[in-house]
User: What shape does this take?
Amino acid sequence: MARRRKTSTFEDIVYIASRLPWWLSLIIALGAWFFFHSVATSPPPTLTDPKQFGQMITGQMFRTISMFLQFIIPVAFCFGAIGSLFGRYKRRKLMGDVASAIKPGKTIEGISWQQFEQLTGEAFRRQGFTVTETGGNGPDGGIDLVLHKDGEKYLVQCKQWRSLKVGVAVIREFFGVMVAQGAVGGFVVTSGAFTAEAKSFASGRGIRLVEGAELNRWIAASRSVQGKPPVITPVQTNSVPVQKVHLPTCPVCGSAMQRRIAKRGANAGNEFWGCLKYPACRGAVNI
Assistant: This one.
């Protein structure tokens, strides 16, 4: 994967802001202006004790820096809001283009993994979810989207795998991250399909698996049914309500744990609970 070019702090702020909803970037811009402006225009304290000289110098430096930040930070977030709006336009256009090109029995093809993530995010936006793109680390990165709806948090991982089925190892890892981040549920979306073992593991754990055929239906419905896209429910597990899952905590560092399979030794092939911070922490609990 190509290395990202070195950027300035201003560019980094604009990039981060562009990944947020545009209205949130504007709120942050306004709040930053009020905060730094109030600091920049605050009167310096009166020096009554020589011991206060160091504190006075520090305060004056902060006021001087705030004189610049009161403009730089709001401008960066305003640029980010514009980028977010432009990105939203591109996602809507992408959704329309893909919906127009879908043919019966054909999965999503001809788009990059970045566009696949954008397309998936747009599908959730149209269902009323607030979507934050995390800017994943490539076509096989970790969590790609963070969703919020009705005060609940959901995670989304996108897998644009055309030739291979998504296996249970991916779902196990996703489940561990989901629990560690305190999400009540999650989605794993692929342009292909899932193995039977992956579907079995996801059942009852608050994870909805979305295959390419179902994603195609979501996209096609956005074109054919005006204002009424298909309802995307967070969890479908044979109509049984999903309860929040409590995993054991690591006996060494206290972090969350996830199921793993021993690859060597006397217990090779057996499952156990392993610390999410492995290899930094090697805490384990037998199942």
Summary: The chain is about 45% helix and 15% strand. The radius of gyration is 24 Å. The chain has three domains: 9-100, 102-224, 257-286. Residues 9-100 form one domain.
